[in-house]
Specification:
- By secondary structure, this protein is of the alpha/beta class.
- The protein has 5 domains: 172 residues, 3-Layer(aba) Sandwich (Rossmann fold), CATH 3.40.50.300; 170 residues, Rossmann fold; 156 residues, Four Helix Bundle (Hemerythrin (Met), subunit A) (Up-down Bundle); 83 residues, no CATH class; 105 residues, no CATH class.
- The chain has 29 helices and 31 strands.
- The longest helix is centred in the middle third of the chain and has 18 residues.
- The termini are far apart.
C-alpha cells in the first residue's frame, strides 16, 4: 500500500480520539483521508465491535470509497466494508465500516436515535455544507450530548475554516495534514469570454488537446452545458482520435459514472459538474479546464419557490478544481475567466442552509421532537423566515398540527425518502387506489426530466398536462423493452432512474405495480395535493399568465405544452427576479374536480367594496380557493356595508373632492380652519383633509343615505355634516370672528374669502370705501383683511392691508390712470370726504340722446 500524506498524522489523530469525543481533521484533496482514516480506526479499543458510519455527500463517492477500502483488505464491498445509498445496499452482519449518503443517515437517526450499534460517525467533505450534512451533524451532536456520551464524531474537510466547527462539537482538537501535490500552472484569459460557456469550454479543450498531454477534466455548470459541449466535441472532425468524451454528473447511471473516472488506454476528456471537485479520484488527469460556474438552488421565502441559478464558484472551489491537475505530476489549470475576476470570488460557497427550501428540514425537526431549532447545535442556524415558510406548508399538507407538532400523517410522510409534497401525494393517492401511477408521477418529479429537448416541448401538439405526457412516454419506454422509444424524445438513462425510484416507492408503500392509467383530471388532482398553493387560474382567456392560489403570479414558458387552460397546477416553477415566476411544467384541472377534492379548502367571502375603475360600490359573494376566485355572484348590500365601503372608497380613492362642495361649504370649512389656527386652544374641530378622512364614518356616515357611486356622492353638499361638528356656541362665535361677509361703507354686503394659510380677502370696488381710513379686521381685531381694491370693471388695481396709505400715496396715481377710462365713475380729488358708492354717475340728457362716437370715451 503506497504511502499517502495522511499517514504522517495518523498517530496524532488516533491519540486525539482516545482522549476526546470529537475530532476535526483538515486535509487537502488527495491526502487519503477518505480511505485511510476509517481503516485505521477498525482496531481501536474504544470502538470494540461497534460500527463506523461514514457520511459521503454523493452516491458515486460513497460507492467508490467503500469499494476501494474493501479492495485494500482483499475483499468485495459488502463484507468488512459496506455501503448504503439510495436504492442500493451492500452490508452484512460482518460489516464494520458502512459508507452512507446523507439521507440514509437521517433515516437511521430518526428510527434509532441512540445509534445502538454505531460507535463513530465520520462526516467526510463537510466543507460542502449541504443542508442534509448540517442537519445530520446537529442530530448526532444532540445524541452525543444527551443519549450517547461514548459516541465519537469526526468531521473531515479539505477547505473548511476549522475553528467554528471545532467549537461547535465541544472544542474538538484539530488535526491538519499536509497535501502531496505537484505544482499546477494556473492560466487565465486575457479578457472575459463571450458566448455560451459550453462553446468557450469546447475551444479550450481543442487547444489543450493539441498543446498538452494526459487526460483533461472540464468543469461545467450543469447537465445542459455538458451535453452541448459533448456534442460540439464529438462533431469536431479535427480533434485527434481516439479521444474519449465522457460526461460525469450525479444522475448518470453508475456504469457511465465509472467509465468517466476509471483509467483508460485512450486519452480522455471528462465533462463534469462540481461532483468532481472532491471525494472522487479521476485517474490520469493532467489538465483542468474550469468554466468557473456552478448551479445552485436559491429559495425565496416570500414566494415559496426555488430558483435554479448559475453562480460563480468560490475561490476555495476553484482551488480544489485546480488541484485535480496536480495529483500525478505537474499539471495545468486553464481558468476561463480573467485574473481580475479571480480577486472578486467569494472565499467559500455559502451553505445550503442559507438559501434552500427548508420544508424537509422542518419535517425532520418535528419528527425529532424539536419545535425551536435553536436548541440544536448548528454551524449556521436555519433562517427563521424559510423555516416558518416550510412549517406553514407542512401544516397545509397535514404533517403538522396547529401547535406545529408532527401528526401521524406527518410521520408517514417522513418515512418516505422524497420531498414532503410528494410523500403527501403518495400517501393520499394510495388511499384512493391510485398508488402505482402516483409512484410514477412522484418519481418523474423527483428525478430529472425524461425528455431530452425540454426547451422544444411546445413544438408538440398542445397538451392538457405536461406530466400526463411524461407518464405516457414512460409507459411507452417500458413497453419497448426499456430501450430507445420510436420518437427518441426520452433520455433512456433518466427513464431508468425514474423507473427505479418508482419501484422503490412502491416497495416502501407495499404497492404492487399495475397498468392503471390516469386521466388528465386525475393527474391534475394528484399534483394539486402536492402543490396546493400553486393551483392557478388564467388571468384572461387566451393568456399565458396565471394567478396562483398563494397570490403570486406566473406565466407559462415554452417548455410547457399546456396552453389556454382556465385552471392549472404549476408544477415546475422558478421564481423570477421580479414579477411573475416562470412555469415550466403544468397540468390542467377543473374547478369542479378541485371542489370535490379540496372542499374544506374552499371558503365563501362576502365583499362589499369600492370599485375605483367603475366609481361605485360593488357587492358580491365569492367562492375562493386561497387567493383564487372560483366563482362569484352579485348581492344586495346592507346599509352599514354600503356605508363602510363608500367611506373606505373615499379614503383610498378620490377623497373629499368627490363630495358636492359649494362655495358656501368650502368657505364654511375655511372659516373654521382660520379660527382654529388663530385660537388653537379654543377646541375648534380639525377640518384638515387628514382629520376629516379619518373621521368620515362619524361626521359623514349618517348623511350618506343610499349613495353608492361617485355621482351620488357629488350630490351630497357637506355643509350640513360639517355644521353638526360645531357646538351652538362655536357656531355663534364663527359668525362673529370669521364672518362670511362684511358690510362696507357703501352699504354693500361683500363676501370674505378665507384661504388655507393666508389672511382673509375682501375684493371690493375702491369707490365703495371712500372715507374709510382703517383697514377692516376680523377675529375680534386680531386679523386685518387683505383688500383687493377693484376698478369699476372689477379688475384688481391694488392689493393692500394698509388702506390709509393707499388713499394718501397710491390713489392719486390710480385716479390719474383710470379716470379717463371710466369717466362715469366718481374719481374725487379728496377720497376722504367723498361719498362711498357702488353706482356709476347718472347720465345727463345730452348723454342719453347722443350715440358714443368713441367706445373708449
Amino acid at each position: 500500500m503506497r504511502k499517502l500524506p495522511i499517514d504522517d498524522v495518523l498517530p496524532q489523530f488516533l491519540a486525539a480520539l482516545e482522549n476526546a469525543s470529537s475530532v476535526v481533521l483538515q486535509a487537502p484533496p488527495g491526502a487519503g483521508k477518505t480511505t485511510r482514516i476509517p481503516l485505521a480506526l477498525l482496531e481501536t479499543p474504544y470502538l470494540k465491535d461497534m460500527k463506523i458510519v461514514m457520511l459521503e455527500p454523493r452516491r458515486l463517492a460513497a460507492v467508490n470509497a467503500a469499494r476501494w477500502m474493501a479492495a485494500s483488505l482483499g475483499e468485495d464491498a459488502g463484507r468488512t466494508i459496506g455501503y448504503t445509498i439510495r436504492f442500493e445496499r451492500k452490508v452484512t452482519t460482518a460489516t464494520r465500516i458502512e459508507v452512507v449518503t446523507e439521507g440514509i443517515l437521517t433515516r437511521r437517526l430518526q428510527s434509532d436515535p441512540q445509534l445502538c450499534d454505531v460507535g463513530m460517525v465520520i462526516f467526510d467533505e463537510f466543507h460542502e455544507r449541504s443542508l442534509a450534512s448540517d442537519l445530520n451533524l446537529a442530530l448526532c451532536r444532540d445524541v452525543q450530548k444527551g443519549l450517547r456520551k461514548d459516541l465519537k464524531l469526526v468531521v473531515m474537510s479539505a477547505t473548511l475554516d476549522c475553528g467554528p466547527i471545532a467549537g461547535l462539537i465541544g472544542n474538538a482538537p484539530v488535526i491538519s495534514a499536509e497535501g502531496k501535490s505537484f505544482p499546477v500552472d494556473i492560466r487565465y484569459l486575457s479578457r472575459e469570454p463571450g458566448g455560451e460557456i459550453s462553446a468557450v469550454a469546447c475551444l479550450a479543450v481543442q487547444t489543450a488537446v493539441k498543446e498538452t498531454e494526459g487526460d483533461i477534466l472540464v468543469f461545467l455548470p450543469g447537465v445542459n452545458e455538458i451535453r452541448r459541449c459533448q456534442r460540439l466535441l464529438e462533431e469536431d472532425r479535427e480533434l485527434p482520435r481516439p479521444l474519449l468524451i465522457r460526461p460525469l454528473f450525479g444522475d448518470l447511471p453508475f456504469s457511465a459514472q465509472e467509465a468517466a473516472i476509471m483509467p483508460t488506454k485512450e486519452r480522455k476528456v471528462v465533462l463534469a459538474t462540481n461532483i468532481a471537485e472532491t471525494s472522487l479520484t479521476i485517474e490520469g488527469v493532467r489538465v483542468v479546464i474550469d468554466g468557473g460556474f456552478s448551479k445552485q438552488l436559491r429559495f425565496d421565502p416570500a414566494t415559496g419557490l426555488n430558483r435554479l441559478v448559475t453562480v460563480r464558484v468560490s475561490a476555495a472551489s476553484a482551488d480544489q478544481r485546480a488541484g485535480r491537475a496536480g495529483r500525478l505530476g505537474p499539471g495545468i489549470c486553464c481558468r476561463l475567466w480573467t485574473e481580475h475576476t479571480q480577486h472578486t470570488l467569494l472565499s467559500y460557497n455559502p451553505p445550503e442552509m442559507r438559501n434552500s427550501d427548508l420544508t424537509l428540514l422542518a419535517l425532520e425537526l418535528a419528527q425529532w421532537g424539536v419545535k425551536d431549532a435553536n436548541v440544536l447545535d448548528w454551524l449556521d442556524t436555519p433562517p427563521p423566515g424559510a423555516l416558518a415558510e416550510g412549517r406553514r406548508l407542512l401544516q397545509r399538507l397535514g404533517a403538522l398540527d396547529r401547535q406545529e407538532l408532527i401528526t401521524l400523517h406527518g410521520r408517514a410522510m417522513a418515512a418516505l425518502p422524497v420531498h414532503p409534497r410528494l410523500s403527501h401525494m403518495l400517501i393520499i393517492a394510495q388511499s384512493r387506489g391510485y398508488g402505482s401511477p402516483a409512484c410514477d408521477l412522484a418519481a418523474l418529479l423527483a428525478e430529472r426530466d425524461i425528455y431530452r429537448a425540454a426547451d422544444n416541448i411546445f413544438a408538440k401538439q398542445t397538451s392538457t398536462s405536461d406530466l400526463l405526457d411524461r407518464l405516457e412516454s414512460l409507459a411507452e419506454w417500458r413497453k419497448n423493452g426499456k430501450g430507445e422509444t420510436a420518437s427518441g424524445e426520452v433520455d433512456t438513462s433518466i427513464c431508468r432512474s425514474v423507473d427505479r425510484a418508482s419501484r422503490e416507492f412502491q416497495r416502501l408503500l407495499g404497492i404492487k405495480g399495475t397498468d392503471l392509467t390516469l386521466s388528465a383530471e386525475e393527474v391534475g388532482l394528484l399534483l394539486a395535493l402536492a402543490f396546493p398553493e400553486r393551483v392557478a387560474r388564467q388571468r384572461e382567456p387566451g393568456s399565458d399568465r396565471y394567478l396562483l392560489a398563494n397570490g403570486r403570479g406566473g406565466r407559462l414558458s415554452n417548455r410547457s405544452a399546456v396552453r389556454d387552460r382556465p385552471f392549472i397546477v404549476a408544477v415546475l416553477m422558478e421564481g423570477g427576479e421580479r414579477g411573475d415566476g416562470v412555469i415550466h411544467q403544468a397540468s390542467s384541472l377543473t374547478p369542479e374536480a378541485l371542489r370535490r377534492e379540496f372542499g374544506a379548502g374552499f371558503v365563501q367571502r362576502r365583499l362589499v367594496e369600492w370599485d375605483a375603475v367603475e366609481g361605485r360600490v360593488i357587492a358580491r359573494e365569492e367562492e375562493r380557493f386561497g387567493e383564487l376566485v372560483i366563482s362569484s355572484w352579485q348581492v344586495t348590500p346592507g346599509r352599514e356595508e354600503l356605508r363602510a365601503a363608500l367611506i373606505e372608497g373615499l379614503r383610498v380613492g378620490p377623497g373629499l373632492a368627490a363630495l358636492g362642495w359649494t362655495n358656501y361649504s368650502t368657505q364654511f370649512r375655511a372659516r373654521v380652519e382660520f379660527l382654529g389656527r388663530l385660537f388653537p386652544n379654543e377646541g375648534w374641530p380639525d377640518f384638515s383633509d387628514d382629520a376629516l378622512l379619518a373621521s368620515l364614518h362619524s361626521w359623514l356616515g349618517p348623511f350618506l343615505g343610499s349613495a353608492r357611486s361617485l355621482a351620488d356622492l357629488s350630490a351630497i353638499d357637506p355643509i350640513h355634516p360639517l355644521k353638526m361638528l360645531l357646538t351652538r356656541e362655536q357656531a355663534l362665535r364663527l359668525d362673529e370672528g370669521a364672518p362670511a361677509y362684511l358690510i362696507v361703507q357703501s352699504g354693500s354686503r361683500i363676501s370674505v374669502q378665507y384661504t388655507a394659510n393666508g389672511p382673509p380677502v375682501l375684493a371690493v370696488k375702491l369707490q365703495e370705501l371712500f372715507g374709510l381710513a382703517e383697514t377692516p379686521t376680523v377675529a375680534w381685531g386680531r386679523a386685518p383683511i387683505l383688500l383687493h381694491l377693484l376698478s369699476p370693471a372689477g379688475r384688481p388695481v391694488q392689493v393692500t392691508s394698509d388702506l390709509r396709505n393707499f388713499w394718501n400715496a397710491v390713489y392719486p396715481e390710480v385716479k390719474k390712470e383710470l379716470k379717463g377710462r371710466y369717466p362715469r365713475h366718481p374719481w374725487p380729488d379728496d377720497p376722504w370726504s367723498a361719498a362711498p358708492t357702488r353706482h356709476a354717475k347718472k347720465r345727463g340728457p345730452a348723454e342719453r340722446g347722443t350715440k358714443k362716437a368713441n367706445p373708449k370715451s
